[in-house]
Amino acid sequence: MNPDISVYNQHQTELDRLICYRLAAIIDSELKEAESKIWHRHPVWFLDGNPVAGYSKLKSCIRLLFWSGQSFDEPELKNEGSFKAAEFRFTTIEQIDEKQLLSWLKKAREIQWDYKNIVKRRGLLIRLK
User: Fold this and answer.
1) Is the pLDDT of residue 129 over 70?
2) Who contacts 106 (Cβ-Cβ below 8 Å, separation ≥6)?
3) In Å, how far are 6, 67, 98, 129 from 107, measured between CA atoms?
4) Mean pLDDT of 67-79
5) Domain boundaries, the chain
6) Fold type of domain 3-110
């Protein structure tokens, strides 16, 4: 695990820390080729410089975000923001369904919108895969 992500996780409450470490372990195991780092103060995983998955602490939960998640056709993921992102919110570690999460991560690898170049394209997203 990226040491900076481990520090981020350590700064969470006990319950949130468990959720964060479990999410990071599963994401790391599925996206072995991804670069992980703290980006905009939150753990994020990148494939070829493109953000695909990450999580953050919200007031009442840990939010798992998939930058291209609206294209996954997964009803459990809720639309987030004005682009293609979708999220799932965790309040307990028991909510982490590893099989479901692995399925979402496979889709994160296969279905990507080009966030890496969104500024250069003035807000226009183009599908990569």
Assistant:
1) no
2) 30
3) 25, 11, 14, 10
4) 96
5) 3-110
6) Aspartate Aminotransferase, domain 1 (3.90.1150)
